[in-house]
Amino acid sequence: MGKKRIGLALSGGGIRALIFHLGTLKWLAEQRMMEDIAQISSVSGGSLCAGLIFVHSGKKWPSSSEFLNHTLPKIEEIVLNNDIQVAAMLRLFPFWLHRRTRLLAKVMSDKWQIGEIAMKKLAHEPLWDANCTTYETGKRFRINQQEMGDFVVGVAHGHDMLVADAMAASAGFPFLIGPYALRWKDFDWTAAVLPPNMPKMAEFKPPRRYHLWDGGVYDNLGLEALFHISSDPTGGRLVDDIDHIVVSNAGQQSGFKRRGLSSSPKRLLDIAMEQVGVLRTRTINSHIRQMHNGMHCRIGRSAAEILELAPIDFAKKRRIIAESLPQHQARFVRDYKTTLRTPTEADFRLIMRHGYETARCNAAFL
Known about the structure:
The chain is α/β, with parallel strands linked by helices. It is built from twelve helices and twelve strands.
């Protein structure tokens, strides 16, 4: 693929997404491409992955060799030996019952050795957007090393948000973890610079608190920071700071589920999120096919399915398929429950292997 300015999109999907993304990044690192990543946009499990990488690489984005030899083994050890979901549940009552997102941040600080590092203390290159959804405005709320905010709330420059808090806010799934409460008066806000095609919002009195939910409610792929959707034949264009995009998509499909005595709000939200994701997926796939400037690594497809139309030698295709997971194991990874529970070591390695193989197979189209 050569030297590129890569935009990396890390989707949501809990611990499954975190591990799948590690597999995608392992493949990128083996191709010496970690140094090419210019911007990162993450959601939920993707934000957990990015935060762990920055913190356990000395507050910076690692080189390819550093990721393979130090960061990846360190993260694997931490995740397999520290169940943050169980740790949080044991401490939930009574004080933390309505502060679950803050509790998650505290548990990650302790168990995952995140500590109390502020986002602004991380290296500013590549820029990392940990994405949330603002309940009050319905917009994407970004938190990065330089600023945070959305199109309506405004922007707070040089904020003191901790890495663990940004990770927890991005992963605050409704009904399970809950919102991260952000007090307005704790930060200095300036008006956001709106895109030319967005009408100005009506002036309003800000509430005492804004509530940040899982970024996947708005965009589970984390594409908005990297890709401008439009009506042109390619479906849009990359932002100016990148010329290549890698989408690591570990989002779970809603699938078939029987209705109980009543409808589950989470089930209905999952269906709505999936349909939004389908539209974004079609747009980015169309762009990549026409522009040949990226790859979409989507969970749940076997090597045989991905490589069916790949423009590579038949013998090479057959060899890659023989070395890769069969369809039923790819489906197992796809259907792995969206949770923060620590997986078994076997499941960890299976999910990461699937992420790695998905990236390798998608690279055959470049």
